[in-house]
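new request in #modeling-help
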Amino acid sequence: MKGDYEILELIPALCRFSKQSSAQLFHMEVWHLMRKKIFLLLAFMLFLAGCQAATPEPIPTNTTIPPAPTIEPTETIEIVAKVDYCVDCHTDKEQLISTAKSEEVADEESSGVG
Amino acid sequence: MAPLEPWEKVLVLQDEFKEDPHNQMKCDNCHGGVQSPDKEEAHEGLISDPSADVTHICSACHSVENHAFEDSLHSTQEGYWTALETRSVPKDHDTLETMFGNHCSSCHTTCGDCHISQPNSVGGGFIEGHVVKKTPSMTRNCTACHGSRVGNEYLGKNEGLQGDVHFRSGRMNCIDCHTGMDMHDSTAACTECHTDPESAALINSDNRYSGAQVPGCEDCHAEVGAEDDSNPQHMLHKDKLSCQVCHSVSYTSCDGCHVSVSENTGNPIFETQNTYQTFFIGRNPDQNYHRPYEYVTVRHIPVDTESYAYYGEDLLPNFDALPTWAYATPHNIQRNTPQNESCINCHGNPDIFLTIDKVNPEEVNANLNVIVDEVPASVGAP
């Protein structure tokens, strides 16, 4: 890259040799340099694109297959029924009799036909 | 009806209730409470009658019945209020509401009172182990409340008087005439005819005799009064007399009900002075399209000027605005009755008409539109 800029130092001598103005020569040289940089940039981008396309599919890191669960043939599943205390008590005549509170028989204070 | 033992009132018959669709719900869905083996703890927050609340759980599935029932006479007891408001003045309504809450409201009916349990007014308790009965029991639900007059008349429990022919001969139950639709919706029959807004505005359920006769005798006996009716008496009297005038026999009247609160127990109590059997034909105090009759059977209702005196003085200043001999539909119908044996048993017979001499002098003004001034003239026998 340093060589590219050194050519700018030669502009005065070239002006004299080509009988063109220094400004014209300056633009010519800058354009020359830019074309070169654009070419390099395009080449670099093509390289990157090629690298990406060539990237292989990532391989899953977790490749361990869990072992199938094993069921012991002698094991049984016990279903525990939820106790309903309301039903338990209110369907048990003896229990209701033993826990019933005797109702206070209020003296019939009303009289006559209601 | 023998009272139930305390345990008997709450015993759930598991086998029977298992077949009931309501068994799909858990007890605490309706009754609240706590799941606990301890009785006291289990009953914390218990709702004994979940249907007592008008927004109750029954409406989740039975919304149609529930919506109508909220305005039905069984729920509102509007008949009481119609009479109380007519005889009183607004300044006393708060006091009368207190009285009503202590006494009259015990007859308020819930879904459970008809379909699961006996009414609380007769001690409560399951009808059939908490099975939800689509059809209420006649004796344990209907006449548990409507017993002293309707029940005794219909079942023939008044001494010397036969039960209603529909019961004796037909073994008909209450619901054979009083359908579920009528029980749930007091104005259901009205809306069949009152369809436009103007006529619909006339619909009310102020009391049991508002609007159409539901049920009506003609619902089954359509031949009565029809062109081909072979009974000339029906043709002569069909719009002049209610059916009961010719086809009921003596029924119960009461006098002097007074309500109060017991000084001993704090319980609301009542005292009814007299109960007796009468048969009187009076003038129809409310002749209208549905009840055009000139004469109807009347019974004495137990109200008097001092019925609510415990709660305040002169709470019924407009006592005379309603008769004390009220339009009645006795439930002891007979094909043959003493008065329909012969023309002269009615015509020219003052004994069976409510003439002024049969009315308590203090109640004459209240009954002016019921008292028969002139007994229908005698006609040639029979």
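bot summary: The radius of gyration of chain B is 23 Å.
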